[in-house]
Design brief:
- The protein is globular and about 45 Å long.
- Strand 5 (98-105), helix 5 and strand 6 (134-140) form a beta-alpha-beta unit.
- It contains six helices and eight strands; from the N terminus they run E-E-H-H-H-E-E-H-E-H-E-H-E-E.
- It has helices spanning 26-34, 37-40, 50-59, 91-94, 114-129, 144-152, and strands spanning 12-13, 18-21, 64-69, 72-82, 98-105, 134-140, 156-166, 172-181.
- Strands 1-2-3-4-5-6-8-7 form an eight-stranded mixed β-sheet, with helices on both faces.
- The chain has a domain at 5-135: Gcn5-related N-acetyltransferase (GNAT) (Aminopeptidase).
- Helices cover 28% and strands 31% of the residues.
- Pfam families: Acetyltransf_3.
- InterPro entries: Acyl_CoA_acyltransferase, GNAT_dom, N-acetyltransferase.
- This is N-acetyltransferase.
- GO terms for molecular function: acyltransferase activity, transferring groups other than amino-acyl groups.
Length: 189
């Protein structure tokens, strides 16, 4: 049986965060910081209104995880289970074998290690909770903060792709792709 986020025993805890599945009403709670230009610089979806943000948020709930600190959502992310690429005759065996993780934090909590803790928890949810064999994460290559987080949680750089990503500024930017196999993961300290 393929496990989903709904099958996990929530909430999950790190030293400083409580993680749980995202809910529709969370859209309004994250909107004040999610819409900030500093946050929107590297996010994939630009919502200009709360209504647009709500519609987008609701479409992501199957893969959405939020991180709370003292009852306030300070991080939002995803663990999106995916099929691995395969040849047609083994497609069923590749189904759901990998996951893409991603995250965004309230700028008010930057610099406290919460991004790394949240990303590590998403990694663990994918590898241990869902049992996938591979996780991936990507970002604009110039997003040094996200790249550092990926490296800190044990992911390896698999490639930097020249001008493969169109930024909403109109510039073509390099993209960076990171991954980690379940059998490469270092044990928790």
């Amino acid at each position: 049986m393929t496990r989903t986020l709904a099958d996990l025993d929530w909430p999950l805890h790190t030293a400083h965060l409580t993680l749980r599945p995202g809910r529709s009403e969370d859209a309004e709670a994250v909107w004040p910081w999610y819409r900030l230009p500093a946050v929107q610089e590297y996010t994939t979806t630009l919502s200009l209104t709360l209504a647009d943000h709500q519609a987008w948020w609701d479409r992501t709930l199957d893969s959405c995880v939020v991180g709370e600190q003292e009852g306030r959502i300070v991080a939002a992310g995803k663990v999106e289970r995916q099929d691995a690429w395969s040849q047609d005759d083994v497609r069923a065996q590749a189904a759901g074998q990998q996951a893409e993780i991603g995250w965004v934090l309230d700028p008010a909590v930057h610099g406290r290690g919460l991004g790394t803790a949240f990303a590590a928890a998403l990694r663990d949810i994918a590898l241990e909770g869902l049992g996938v064999r591979r996780i991936e994460a990507g970002c604009f290559a110039e997003n040094r903060a996200s790249r550092r987080v990926m490296e800190k949680i044990g992911m390896r750089l698999e490639g930097v792709f020249r001008e493969d990503s169109l930024h909403r500024s109109g510039r073509w930017l390099d993209g960076a792709s990171y991954a980690l196999l379940a059998n490469e993961r270092r044990p928790r300290r």
